[in-house]
Write a structure and sequence with these properties.
The protein is mainly alpha-helical. The chain is built from ten helices and two strands; from the N terminus they run ααααββαααααα. Strands 1-2 form a two-stranded antiparallel ribbon. α2 packs across α7.
Length: about 190
């Protein structure tokens, strides 16, 4: 299994979003939902229209941990969701499979959607966890609050969070690139 990475470059995040928007609105909303909530794909796929309709916050029980979690719907995500669910019925899954009357797409289909988008931009380290990692990475870049991100992602330790969102790798890369064995003043 290949390691997936966050999408560190904000332009690439926006390019992937635009690419998905032109291909399929459901896939675009899935991507935006993932990068704005930081939820695992297994939890994202369980959402129905009624879970987000006219809501400012959503409560879920995480599939992996069994923990109850509340998260606000980000102000930038809210109009994307509202436009997307317009005309949809409350019982419908947000990310409905086109092959079944009322089932969500599979994890594999979500992976295929993201892998296809990544391939279009030469970004191969992409998978379903990329959405969650991208959320954490950019939240860290904007807040530098690893403690809050650790809590949001339900990690047991900050070191896990920093490794997960790619900050440790960035720091190691920067340290290695800055290493020099030239003696000062010796050209």
């Amino acid at each position: 299994m290949n390691t997936v990475e966050p999408i560190r470059d904000m332009d690439l995040v926006l390019d992937v979003a635009d690419y998905l928007k032109t291909k399929n609105e459901r896939d675009y909303v899935l991507f935006m939902f993932g990068i704005y909530t930081g939820l695992r794909i297994s939890d994202i796929l369980k959402f129905r229209v009624r879970d987000v309709k006219d809501k400012d916050a959503v409560y879920i029980r995480e599939k992996k941990t069994g923990k109850e979690k509340r998260f606000p719907i980000n102000a930038e995500l809210k109009p994307i969701i509202e436009k997307y669910i317009c005309g949809k019925r409350d019982f419908e899954y947000l990310f409905k499979s086109p092959h079944f009357p009322n089932k969500p797409i599979s994890r594999q289909q979500a992976y295929n959607i993201l892998a296809d988008a990544g391939k279009a931009f030469g970004f191969s380290s992409i998978g379903t966890h990329t959405l969650r990692k991208t959320f954490g990475y950019h939240m860290y870049q904007q807040t530098h609050d690893a403690v809050t991100i650790k809590e949001i992602l339900n990690h047991s330790d900050i070191s896990v969070t920093l490794r997960y969102i790619g900050i440790n790798q960035d720091n190691k890369d920067r340290a290695i690139r800055g290493l020099s064995f030239r003696k000062r003043g010796r050209g």
